Amino acid sequence: xxxxNEMKMLSVLYAEDDTVLCEITAKTLKLLVDKVYSVTNGTDxxxxxxxxxxxxxxxxxxxxxxxxxxxxxxxxxxNPHIPIIIVSGSxxxxxxxxxxxxxxxxxxxxxxxxxxxxNVLASSVDRLKLHGFLLVxxxxxxxxxFQSKVLIREGEKIALTKNEIxxxxxxxGRRGQIITRNTFSHILKEEMSDGALKNLILRLxxxxxxxxxxxNLPRIGYTLI
Length: 225
Description:
- By secondary structure, the chain is of the alpha/beta class.
- It folds into 2 domains: about 5-130, Rossmann fold; about 155-225, Arc Repressor Mutant, subunit A (Orthogonal Bundle), CATH 1.10.10.10.
- Helices cover about 45% and strands about 20% of the residues.
- The chain contains 9 helices and 11 strands.
- Helix 3 (about 40-50) packs parallel to helix 4 and helix 7 packs across helix 9 (about 195-210).
- It is elongated, with a radius of gyration of 19 Å.
- The chain starts with a helix and ends with a strand.
- About 30% of the residues are buried.
């Protein structure tokens, strides 16, 4: 799976008090990742972090109510490993020193260039994989753990066969796209009859406990919604 596909699975919290810049950058992020929670102040950033699954945090350093540094400190107390990126047009020496204690992925300057955004997200993926925290939410009760190669359903780990793992990662990596039987055969490195593929998908649905996330398009293929 390519780094861009891995980035496409991320859920990102983005806080920026400049509403125009927040909207522009959030739109760019939505092209790169699966889910973006964009907010314009530190209070909302903390609220979103506490109430939603977030993989990566991107914070403007200077926000009206709570600074990005203070938000990062609070998040660090809750999660010592989550990737955090600080953003600013300029930074004072004391803020830079404070940021250095937070185990940041990076500090980037405004305006955020596309390549810079891609680089910090790629670094975030590497950090998540290093600590075994790259989880992809399939639905509210089911996620997939790329580190241990298992489904997690309501807190219970569910083992997968090699073919089920490859099929699951193919579906996740191309979420929303239609995947044909020939593509499944290529990725699984074995010829898949319609019946064999149907049985594979049936097993995945059963282990997920949901028949609706993997949609069948008759005579075309399957897609993860």
